[in-house]
Amino acid sequence: MSILIDNVSKNFGDFQAVADIRLEIQPGNLVALLGPSGCGKSTLLRLIAGLELPDSGQIWLEGQDATRQRLQERNIGFVFQHYALFKHLTVAQNIAFGLEVRKTPKAQIKARVEELLGLVQLAGYGGRYPAQLSGGQRQRVALARALVVEPRVLLLDEPFGALDARVRKDLRAWLRRLHDEVHVTTIFVTHDPEEALEVSDTIVVMNKGRVEQVGSPVEIYDHPESAFVMSFLGQVNTLPNTPELFPQLSEAAREVLVRPHDLSLSVQAGGPSLAARVERLMYLGWQVQAELVLEAGQPLIVQLSREQADRLQLRPDQPVYVQVRNPKIFPAVATDKQLAEAAA
Ligand SMILES: Nc1ncnc2c1ncn2[C@@H]1O[C@H](COP(=O)(O)OP(=O)(O)OP(=O)(O)O)[C@@H](O)[C@H]1O
User: Quick one: angle between helices 106-119 and 165-182, nearest 10?
Assistant: First the structure.
């Protein structure tokens, strides 16, 4: 189902949680709403579900204005961070719940529950109670319960947030495969960039109630439109705005950011480079993270493969030269003080 969020705003008292968002979601897409805590992701999801009413704007589901429809009328499946399974019902009864409410014939319910148990890889677990399952298994039951009624949209609010790192990673891969099988338009909230990059077709990066950028994982990672998006998606270094390296830049009104894996090192000067000194080396399995200090005292982080680091025979205090690939240049972010002065 296509979804159009048409200039939607939502305030809580004086606070604007969602600020005039316009966003179109294509049918069958798996979309991540990604952003820092408090940026309005859950509020936007709840607005789509019909759990909150917008102060202004409309929500269109499949070309129909659904703004005033209640959750039950929207045919949406919702899964929260904390699995809200019924403790006194078995797994099968939990999954069947939505169909029981709709008075679906018993035989049909039984067949559908079996189908869903297979889909979430819990065949044979129908007779267990939630307390007899692991956290990851409970979240899969919650997904089966949401899917049983064939919703047109699946909304997931940090569905794996309460689970440990390893289980999260398994469930991400599982969600991707599940989506490839059922193709239901799915929107999930996460504050974890790695999760968004790994699972989704489209990432919507949010900041302070607004959408910063929408694009595929590759577009967002390779072509961030703002310093915020670039910094939120992974580690970055801020480079000095030096004319030798960046002759095209005018004065100080620019910010130059670069990812640690887009810096390379040599032990001899040559070509455009920045002089630095190795401060610390950290061996992180297959890669090495080198912490450097530039001549002006600014810190810089460089990621190298083990092989590169061994070839350079790096050691603390060694002078090195840094070459820069793929620098991203953004207008300098005005500080709050500068904004206040401009407004005065
Ligand atoms: N019912 C409410 N009443 C008052 N303020 C609210 C309410 N719901 C959310 N907010 C505020 O709106 C802002 C956005 O909240 P929201 O839960 O959408 O953020 P989020 O991006 O999902 O954050 P998190 O990742 O921490 O859950 C927050 O500052 C929050 O305190």
Answer: 120
pLDDT by position in tens, the chain (length 344): 899 999 999 999 999 999 999 999 999 999 999 999 999 999 999 999 999 999 999 999 988 999 998 888 888 988 887 767 899 999 999 999 989 988 889 999 999 999 999 888 899 999 999 999 988 899 889 989 988 988 889 999 988 877 788 878 888 888 898 899 888 999 999 999 999 999 999 999 999 999 999 999 999 999 999 999 999 999 999 887 766 666 666 655 578 899 999 999 999 887 888 899 999 999 988 899 999 999 888 999 999 999 998 899 999 999 999 999 988 888 766 555 554 555 55
**In this structure, what CATH number is given to the domain that contains residue 259?**
2.40.50.100
CA–CA distance, 257 with 238 (Å, rounded to integer): 5
- State residue 68 phi and psi, 5-degree precision: -100, 0
β-partners of residue 96 are: none
Domains held by the chain: number: 2
Question: Which residue among 33, 43, 232 is best mutated to probe the pocket of ligand 1, counting the most ligand atoms within 8 A of its Cβ?
Answer: 43
53 CA distance to ligand 1 middle (Å)? 14
- C-alpha–C-alpha distance, residues 178 and 60, integer Å: 26
**302: domain range?**
237-331
Asked if residue 339 is part of any domain, the answer here is: no
Q: Which of 232, 251, 281 is where one domain is finished?
A: 232
118 plus 177 within the same structural domain: yes
Encoded amino acid at 31, one letter: V
Ligand 1 contact, 248 CB (< 6 A)? no
Could you tell me the pTM of the whole model?
0.87
Indicate whether residue 37 lines ligand 1 (CB < 6 A). yes
Is residue 341 in a domain?
A: no
Tell whether ligand 1 has an atom less than 6 A from the beta carbon of residue 38.
yes
Instruction: Report how far apart the first and last C-alpha atoms of the chain are (Å, whole number).
Output: 47
